[in-house]
Amino acid sequence: MDPKKPKDRPFYELPEKVKPSSKIINEARCSLRSVVTKRPFTPRDDKRTLFPVSTSRNPESRPPSAFSLNSRHFDGPDSRPVSGTRLSPLDYCSTEVADVRVRTEIKTPRPPSAGDLESQHLPPKPPSDPNKPLSRKGSRPKLFPSSSVDVPGPLDGASPTRGRSGSFTDVSDAAPRRTGSGSRDRPSILPVEERGVGDGRETPVRTSSSMAVSSPPGSAGSKEGTRKSNSAGKSGRAGSAGKREIEDSAEEVFYNSFVAPILEEFASMGKKKDNGRIFELAEELYNVLNKGNKLKKHYKQRSSILKAIFKLLDVDEPRVLLKLARLILAFKVSGNNLLNVCKLIFKVSRNEKNDPEFLDGNVLDLMLNTIRFSDHVASCEGLVYCVGAVKFLTGNATILKKLATKECIEILTKLMQNIQKTNRDNGKVNEQFGHILVQLAAALRNLADCSSGRERFINSGTTESLAQLMDEYPSDSDLMLYISRTFSKITLHTDCCRVLASQHGCYKAILNLLNSQLQNEDLVVRLSFVLGNLTAKNDDARVRLFEEKNSLDTLLTVLKFYHNKHKQGKTKNESAVNSPPDNKQNDSDVSKLDDVMIKTVRVIANLSINETVGPQIASNRKCVLLLLNILDTRDISDSEELILNTVATINNLSFYSVKTSVIMSQQMELAELLLKLMLPDNMEAMLEASRVFGNLTQHKNVRDFLTKNKIDEMMISLLDCGCREVVYNACGVLVNFMSDESKRPLLKKEGGVKKLIDVLHDFGREDWDLSSTVCKVLCNYSTKITSSNACFGEQEAQDLSELLLEFLDKDTALADSDADSLDCLCETWEDKFVPVGTQLLKRIEKYQSKFEPLEAPG
Question: What is the residue extent of each domain of the chain?
Answer without folding.
Answer: 71-84+105-110+119-128+140-333, 715-858
